[in-house]
Design goal:
The two termini are 31 Å apart. The chain folds into two domains: 1-40, no CATH class; 51-201, Rossmann fold. It has 202 residues and is an alpha/beta fold. The chain is globular and about 50 Å long. The model has no long low-confidence stretch (mean pLDDT 89). It has helices at residues 22-26, 36-39, 61-72, 83-90, 104-110, 114-121, 143-147, 177-188, and strands at 53-58, 96-99, 130-132, 153-155, 165-173, 193-201. The strands form two sheets. The chain has a four-stranded parallel β-sheet, sandwiched between helices. Strands 3-4 form a two-stranded antiparallel sheet. Strand 5, helix 8 and strand 6 (193-201) form a beta-alpha-beta unit.
Length: 202
Amino acid sequence: MKRYEVLNCLLCNSPLDEGVTWKTLLSNRFPRTICLHCEEKFEPCETESRESLISLYKYNDDMKGYLHRYKFMHDVLLAKVFRHQIQQQLSKKKEIIVPIPMHHAKLKERTFAHIDELLNEANIPYVHYLKKITTETQAGKTREERLNAPQIFALKENQDPGNKEFILVDDIYTTGTTINQAKRILLDAGAKSVKAFTLIRG
């Protein structure tokens, strides 16, 4: 497990009380990267009965600010903020972890794949089974436009999902269009089951 010493909160820059200690080095918990005050601003999602989708947090103003800094201001260090929570949820899963992919043009513009980085920081192995075939995004669309969006993914060459179990990982779930389209590609190619995990529920 990778260890980084973060001395100040990555969100508000206030000093952190907890540094790297023997306890954090010997345990499975990552050292803290944000202060308790910032951590308390994120609202956990209520546990849902359906196991096909797990989301960790609600999309409140503070989470909106986090996403803006991380994705659009290219603050890749913020991938560390939720690494412990993501690892707790995914590290013992038997399914293959599949990140929702970025289009190569968008990746070049942003310089990093934000879902991949969240998983990298949490030490979660993953495999790219999908590719994005359009630069079109769901942001800014109405609910009706999202639900009627054309297919934006395709199966990657030389990948066979046949009889395998998967967990799709994305940053945010709103109408479910992105997850459902990716899920359909895998199921149509023979996947045994496809679940989903997102950091945020919109």
